[in-house]
Amino acid sequence: MSVHTEIKRITTSTLKSFKEKGIKISCLTAYDYSMASIVDTAGIDLILVGDSASNVMAGHETTLPITLDQIIYHAQGVVRAVKRAFVVVDLPFGSYQGNSEEALRSAIRIMKETGGHAVKMEGGKEIEESIVRILSAGIPVMGHLGLTPQSIYKFGTYTVRAKEEEEADLLKSNARLLADLGCFGVVLEKIPNKLASEVTASIDIPTIGIGAGAGCDGQILVIHDMLGINKDFSPRFLRRYADLHSVMSEAFTNYIADVKSGDFPSEKESY
User: Contact 134/104 with Cβ under 8 angstroms?
Assistant: First the structure.
């Protein structure tokens, strides 16, 4: 019997048991009901309602502009579709940094208004107070270290993080801190494979990699990227599993031609 049919609903304890048993965790982003329904039915373990919606759904250059209200809207549709996957919702930029009371209010809004199962936050020691406050309310928290897109203007680039020893040591320290505080998992983004493997071995919570090599406990990709909808985005870590840009373009072209020629609708397609 497959793992997919055995488990009715993925939880934080399921994810931890996957790490303990060496079962890799599959994750994708989703931002709407229809897409989330297909992803969930396929058997994905974890769906992230990512602030990457700012890029792929709204066309912004960075993840910074998306608001708490907007992320809640996207998450509501996803949660309505999901029957099995564990749904994590990003806390957007400005909703938790620097003010732990606001962080808790933001997390509570997400949990109450979306029905999501957890929140994700970028950073380590600098957001410790916010993490503790959210966890104390019984809300599961997923961490995010390495390349943290909400800090893009601080970094100034989307290149690989933690290649130097000092930054690598800080990342290891922050990963241990997140695990010790009680986070149920951590995303590792665009860091060296060797470092990601070391971090994964050093903590007892699952690591989910994106551009962090095969040593992580699981992997995540942005759904529009792996489906080939975004044809101009080609980072080294991305494997395209479809070319939907071409499939959709052909369908639209054919539809336009059929409408213009009068071929659609046909007699059979009319009442």
Answer: yes
Contact 107, 91 (CB under 8 A): yes
Q: How far is CA 201 from CA 164, 172, 186, in A?
A: 20, 11, 13
pTM of the model: 0.96
Q: How do residues 158-200 score in pLDDT, each as one tens digit?
A: 899 999 999 999 999 999 999 999 999 999 999 999 999 999 9
- Tell me which residue range forms the domain holding 263: 243-271
113 shares its domain with 187: yes
Transcribe 178-216 into DSSP letters: HHHHT-SEEEEES--HHHHHHHHHH-SS-EEEESS-TTS
Summarised one tens digit per residue, pLDDT across range 120-149 is 999 999 999 999 999 999 999 999 999 999
Active-site choice (6, 102, 167, 189):
189
249 shares a domain with 211? no
Q: What is the pLDDT of residues 226-257, one digit of tens each?
A: 999 998 888 999 999 999 999 999 999 999 99
* Helix and strand numbers, DSSP H then E, in the chain: 12, 8
CB 82 within 8 A of CB 118: no
SS3 for 134?
A: helix
Helices (H), 29-143: 33-42, 53-56, 68-81, 100-114, 128-136
Token pair in block for residue 65: 């502009």
Give the model's pLDDT for residue 6: 67
Sign of CA dihedral 105, 13, 221, 242: negative
* CATH number reported for the structural domain that contains residue 225 in this entry: 3.20.20.60
Q: Is position 20 annotated as part of the catalytic site?
A: no
